[in-house]
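Example (one chain per record):
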Amino acid sequence: MSDVLIQSDQGALLIDGKAVAAQVLAEVAKGAADLIAQGVRPGLAVVLVGEDPASQVYVKSKGKAAETCGFHSVQHTLGRETTQAELMALVEKLNADPAIHGILVQLPLPKQIDAQVVLETISPAKDVDGFHPVNAGLLAIGDRKRALVPCTPAGSLILLQAACLVLGCPIAGQNAVVIGRSNIVGKPMAQLLLAESATVTMAHSRTRDLADIVGRADIVVAAVGIPEMIKGAWIKPGAIVIDVGINRVPGEGLNAKGEPKTRLVGDVEFSAAAVRAAAITPVPGGVGPMTIAMLMSNTLTAARRKA
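Predicted structure:
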């Protein structure tokens, strides 16, 4: 894994999410080929409701990755006017389809649809996003052998493990702070770190003395969704920083269409943090690529369990 860390100009090692994701996808493709040789082809169904541009890009990327891994890949694109009953009927149909091992309903959904109800309709065994309460509960009690773990925290843990391997600092016993308490990233990330025997503090945008809490952490996972909220000066020298945030902010100048340029930043003030951290994920190119890679990994896992 030493080849996935790059020396940055600021001093910290950059954790190359693209390189790690490529390794994960290669392993998934090999596992899928072995399963296909046994007569089972992993199947992934992605459901897109509406015409959200970002969602369309994500779904296209997921479909491309599934095909690269050798999966049976299908996409269902529904209109924005789709009712909750219609969407749930499709999910139930996919639940019953033996050729489909993983189901992903792309978020966000139109306002007339209760996303939580839809997500809970997905069979836990096919819930490759890891959002179903059954999978959340299995992760909470430490049963990763039966759980499907949410993709972004699962990928973040792999990046952290890669950095710790190179730096020679096992996760066990270290002080970790997770900033962000969402069901999608923050809470499952804390559970994963606990399972690795880290001492975990959960923090969020309303935490008092956040700078002091971050300053004592050996591991910082930022998933609060606020651009550069975590200041570089807060980072403990030698800490490992996993920045989950992807935020679009104003850039400089105009693009070819004469529109104001934008740029992507994380939840951590990168340039200042990279001077103090031992290793840090860049934005973009850090955690982002791992999410799709772990979705493919979860689909393979679901297919293996079914087989």
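Caption: The mean pLDDT is 95.
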